[in-house]
Amino acid sequence: MTIRRDIRPGTVIAALGLALLGALLAGIAFGAVPVAPGDIVGALSRALAGRSTGMIDTLVTQVRLPRVVLAAIVGAALAGAGAIYQALFRNPLADPYILGVSSGAGLGAMIALTLTAQTTAVRYGAVPAAAFAGALLTMLLVTRLAAWRGRLDTASLLLAGVAISYTLAALTSFLMVFAREQMAAVVFWMMGGLSAASWPYVAMIAPMFAVGAVLAMAFPRELNLMLLGDERAGHLGVDVKRFKLYALAVASLLTAAAVAVAGLIGFVGLMVPHGVRLLLGPDHRALLPASLLGGATVLVLADLIARVVLAPVEIPVGIVTALIGGPFFVWLLVSGGRSR
Amino acid sequence: MTGATLLRYRAAAVGYGSENVVRQAELSVHAGEVVGLIGPNGAGKSTLLRAVTGDSVLFSGSIELGGRSLSTISTLERAALVGVVPQQVIAEFSFPAREFVEMGRHPHLPRFSRPGPADAAAVERAMALTDTTHLAEKPVDALSGGDLQRLAFAQALATEPSVLLLDEPVSHLDLNHRMQVLDLTRQLADEGMAVLAVFHDLDLAARYADRIAVVAGGALSAAEPPIRIITTDTLRTVFGVRAVVGTDPVTGSVSVTPVLRDGAVAVRDRGRVHVVGGSGVAAPLMRRLVLAGWTVSAGALNAGDADAMLADALGVEYPRIPPFAPMDSASAIHAAQLADKASAIVVCEVPFGHGNVDNLLVAVRAGRPLVLVGDIAGRDFAGGAAQSYWTEALAAGARQVADTDEVLDALAQWDNAVV
After folding, report:
1. Which residues of chain B approach chain A closer than 8 Å at the C-beta?
2. CATH of residue A303
3. Which pLDDT does position A1 carry in this prediction?
4. Where in B277-356 does DSSP place strands (E)?
5. A8-23, pLDDT tens digit by residue?
6. pLDDT per residue as tens digits for the range A142-169
7. A259: Cβ–Cβ under 8 A, 6 or more apart, which residues?
């Protein structure tokens, strides 16, 4: 493909920022009970002044706002992690699922869910911590397994990732047998949803996301070099083995942040970085911030669809992203990955 | 004109996994010179080169950059010192060519800074040197292999290295760009870079390298000037090829003309043939005889004569006389001894003068089956002597044939291998 020289990265990033703002406002405005734009502004300003009154204020500040903020963080985290994986594996089909990292985070979160009581402070702390531990342990296990016979090459990483991923998914299902009382929560969580969104959830993953996003954006040149292959990256100054472990850890942190609160939400990490690359080219100096903004926007909108399409019944947002993402994935396969 | 030692292998053993490919390698590459590595496929030329960047394993010994051991130099620091042009360039993503070259600046850029004027200047210079400036806006995944290879060269130059490693730098290039890249390599060395390059083409190695080392049989030879390394002997022992090694009349450097592969020579021993030739008229016949399994000797030949060079390449024994000198008694006796051992003698379509008519005399009087190619008319410059020997031979039963093919047919009746 040719590069769209007429599109400047700064313009695209600014446009994505505006789109995110619009998506956040739409996410607050629409739902089972619509809220007029004026009421949103009013509710937010009263909340800032500490003088919230009435049902609309509560709806805006305690239900809709934490929900869209959480959706934005989860979407950004998944897209950021996807961008990193796609660079490390030089493969537009890579995403947080391919290494088994999501399954590892899922298993960790699952263990924490079954061992803790609902809506306690312990759970808010334990679930993300367990998810990150699960993601990190899985990442270490997969890379150790892949490097068993010498070098840490992409083919062995993908093979080990797929193998571990299935094993962990089976373990997660096995655990569900012992979590009868928690079954509804667990199943809903596994389908990928944001219905439990609240400020404590936002507080739970915001620090993880912030750290992961900053660390990810600190190494755009190395990610660019990784696209030239491990050897060439090494020639030009990347300590490839160490950088891979570092980048995988950062991507795991982002993945864990998303999985801990929203369960398994597919395709955002795959679609968003790929779409941004088609628009901006592969330079991670623009690709990473654009992916974070794009991921946030996409998930806020997907969650909005999930809430309103059968209102007042909600469907898990994972179903929406999968319904959009499945055909996208097929299109990617049919176009032969040529349009990288 | 060469300067400080910038790259040095000391008793280096290199390979992959746990397999040693080259042992005890000793080599110094100095500022201002191009050192070439030649050798058969799989001998370890690239493996030696790749050990510098950690792409192959250094098992023991050491590799030094500017006097410091590699093990004490970080990846980033090493990248600023050593430019690499690899065999294969991966360009699956659509970076514009200029950005691709700019990636070579990575070792010089602090973490959060964007490329500045100095970086832009280095990129521009690298692209100008490699004649890739016109490609600047093109996405690299849409370029040809040759363009990519030159961009990889530009990328390596953008790091402003003091050592340049080239792994078959011209493998994907057309004739024009091949010369351009090698001329550039020469120029960079003249400006003070130390260049270590793997060559497949021996003529190019001889032409562009100041010194050449041979990698074969798990060992690295000493690096010597091309004329000392690229010899008939080296080609025979290292590559299993018999070749004429001469001097290119235009460039003045060593040039190689492969004649035949050892593996292609028939195994059966057909016996000995003595060939009278000169000025290259016997070369095609000698080559075919050796290929068919005959042991060939030749009449006296002047050193530097085309037939003499081929005889050297094929290991054909002949009395060697100085350029333009006539045969003396010693060479005539030597020729007679060789003719005497042969089961048959062939006289090719060579002109005879006073200097070489003794070759004909020896052939006619040796008492061996004789095959004469062509007619003597028009090539007797020995005052009638050649004509009279020729007539004598025909009277004694010599067989006259028209060309090389008929010689081979005629020789069949004296073939040992025919039962």
Report:
1. 17, 53-55, 74-76, 78-80, 82, 84, 86, 89-96, 99, 103-104, 106-107, 109, 111-112, 137, 139, 141-142, 155-156, 159
2. 1.10.3470.10
3. 42
4. 295-298, 301-302, 320-321, 344-347, 352-353
5. 788 889 999 999 999 9
6. 878 887 766 666 677 778 888 898 899 8
7. A102, A105, A106, A109, A131, A135
| Mean pLDDT of the B237-260 span | 87
Q: Do the interacting molecules here have an ipTM over 0.95?
A: no
The residue of chain A with its CA nearest to that of B77 is A237
Q: Assess whether B155 and B57 both reside in one domain.
A: yes
Number of domains chain A is built from = 1
Owning domain of residue A288:
70-334
Q: Please tell me the total count of domains within chain B.
A: 2
DSSP 8-state code for residue B114: P
Q: Are B89 and B192 members of one domain?
A: yes
C-alpha dihedral sign at B79, A248, A206, A32: positive
What are the distances in angstroms from CA B12 to CA A19, B21, B313? 59, 11, 34
With an 8 Å Cβ cutoff, are B92 and A237 in contact? no
Residue A46 Cα to chain centre, angstroms = 32
In this structure, is residue B255 part of a structural domain?
no
pLDDT given at position B265? 81
Q: What is the pLDDT of residues A100-134, one digit of tens each?
A: 888 898 888 888 877 776 656 566 678 778 888 89
Residue B259 lies in a domain: no
Claim to verify: residue B226 and residue B372 sit in the same structural domain: no
Is pLDDT at A191 greater than 80 in this prediction?
Answer: no
Say whether B103 and A283 touch across the interface (CB within 8 A): no
Chain A and chain B share a number of CB contacts under 8 A equal to: 80
pLDDT at A280 over 70: yes
- Does B257 fall in a domain? no
In a domain, A6, yes or no: no
Domain with B334 in it: 265-414
Whether B281 and B348 have beta carbons less than 8 Å apart is answered as yes
**Is the dihedral angle over the CA atoms A232, A235, A240, A246 positive or is it negative?**
negative
